[in-house]
What does this fold into?
Amino acid sequence: MIVLGGLMFVHQLDPVLFQIGSLEIRYYGIVYVLGFLMAYWFLSRAASSGRIRNLTKDGVDDLILYLFVGLLVGSRLFYFLFWSETSLLSDPVALFRIWEGGMSFHGGIVGIVLAALLFCKRSKVSFYALGDLVVIPTAFALFLGRIANFINGELVGVVSNIWWCVQFQGYDGCRHPSQLYEAGKNLFVFFVLLWMDRRKVVMKFKEGFLFWSFIGLYGVFRFLTNIWRDDPRWLGISLGQGFSLVMVVVAVVVVVRVYRDDLKRLFSF
It folds into this structure.
């Protein structure tokens, strides 16, 4: 539980929901299962309604497998390449121990995009039509993921004396609950995408508009919320912020050049 101690919250949450023998069921793993179930539901509805051309129910099953492998490999590789002190050369099995935490969002996006491109090429499905749909459950899954990070007591914020600061086990001082800031950011992006998707049906936005909107929105808010995250910094910004800036720049260039008219329609109330 979390108890009030003076002017700080002391983090005492158990990352294990329950245990059956040596098998531990962790919140972190449950979050990823829920995320893929939500994506499966969205995609199955799209296949049934014909929203995405050439996407069948059997294709959805294959796609979920593609996305899972892309997420796992991409997120774990980026984590070990840029954030972890553990070398895959000395402990290659660590790549698959996702219950220990350590999933890079930026690597996950790269892995998912590459996996989706491969699936779309083989199945003759429009990548952008697929991307416009998948980003919605992705944003919600990221919200759940940051809640799981908070439960795990990882990715903590910088030391602060604010009244809502949290004392995390294994860290000195009371800190910003930066995981919750990011969770709130992801939930906000989720609702914005839902709203945009509803307008897309009426306004006839070109394919890919929601996908690039997600890339840009996530990049902006990730950069801002990471101000309070305790990450190593170079020239005043963290590696995560640097990757997020790249996302923002690429998204802005694409939206301005390709979706300028859609952007105008979006804000023409």
